[in-house]
């Protein structure tokens, strides 16, 4: 079984946190890695090896703690909320229009790229955002006429 790079990084971080939490000396840490995982470095562990090392460290008394950092839930509006104040109203309008049209943000990004050569819609200037809204209104009208026919 292969783990994603994020999972691998998280597990390696846990191993190093456990080493520090248990107050392991470097030589005993290396010996534990060799005994449990048959490697000299945690970076050389595969998925099963990382699991075995973490299980061993937990048996030795390691207790994983939850992060105390408060991370707000991703509402999907981060690209709007993180924009400058002069762009927020038009970005909100674009976000609502995307939701109504059942489209992803990538659609607005594609319009920005095609019209202005800007990769992400949140980097457009306010006058460019107005023109993107106009293009989306035309698309909305086109879809409404097609649905009525």
What does this structure look like?
This protein folds into 2 domains: 5-59, no CATH class; 78-143, no CATH class. It is built from 7 helices and no strands. The chain starts with a helix and ends with a helix. It is elongated. With 149 residues, the chain is mainly alpha-helical.
In terms of DSSP E residues, the strand content is under 5%
| Number of separate helices | 7
- Shape category: elongated
Q: Report the average pLDDT across residues.
A: 89
**Which percent range fits the helix content?**
55-70%
Summary keywords:
149 residues, mainly alpha, 2 domains, 7 helices, elongated
SSE inventory with pairings:
Elements: H1 5-22, H2 26-37, H3 47-59, H4 78-81, H5 88-100, H6 105-116, H7 126-148
């Amino acid at each position: 079984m292969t783990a994603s790079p994020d999972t691998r990084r998280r597990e390696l971080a846990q191993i190093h946190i456990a080493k520090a939490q248990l107050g392991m000396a470097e030589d005993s840490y290396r010996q534990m890695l060799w005994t449990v995982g048959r490697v000299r470095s945690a970076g050389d562990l595969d998925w099963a090896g990382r699991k075995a090392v973490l299980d061993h460290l937990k048996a030795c008394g390691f207790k994983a703690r939850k992060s105390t950092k408060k991370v707000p839930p991703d509402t999907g509006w981060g690209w709007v909320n993180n924009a400058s104040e002069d762009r927020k109203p038009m970005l909100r309008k674009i976000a609502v229009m995307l939701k109504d049209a059942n489209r992803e943000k990538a659609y607005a990004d594609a319009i920005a790229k095609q019209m202005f050569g800007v990769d992400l819609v949140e980097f457009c200037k306010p006058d460019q955002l107005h023109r993107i809204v106009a293009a989306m209104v035309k698309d909305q009208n086109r879809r409404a006429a097609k649905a009525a026919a």
